[in-house]
Amino acid sequence: MKVLHCREVGFDCLGVIKAESENEVLQMAAQHASDAHQVNVTPEMAEQIKTLIREE
Q1: Model-level pTM?
Q2: Domain range holding 25?
Q3: Are 18 and 56 in contact (CB under 8 A)?
Q4: Rounded to whole angstroms, what are the CA distances from 49 to 1, 7, 12, 55?
Q5: Number of domains into which the chain is organized
Q6: Residue 10 and residue 56: Cα distance in Å, rounded?
């Protein structure tokens, strides 16, 4: 299971995204960023976010 904590991306947010693959986490993170933080994830941001995804 892959996991990403929103606060590690730089938001004051307790959101945690879990999925089977890195790509699923990135898709869910982009949706969360848009819905919760009104931020559109750029390809450059996605590359940075990838480095924060951990194995759980």
Answers
A1: 0.92
A2: 2-55
A3: yes
A4: 16, 11, 16, 14
A5: 1
A6: 20
Are 17 and 30 in contact, with CB atoms under 8 Å apart?
Answer: no
Do residues 14 and 31 lie in contact, with contact meaning Cβ atoms separated by under 8 Å? no
In the predicted model, what is the mean pLDDT of residues 5-32?
Answer: 97
In whole angstroms, what is the distance from residue 13 CA to residue 23 CA? 21
Residue for token pair 């969360």: 32
Cβ atoms of 1 and 18 within 8 Å: the answer is: yes
Which distant-in-sequence residues (6+ apart) come within 8 Å of 22 by Cβ?
2, 50, 53
How long a stretch of residues is the chain? 56
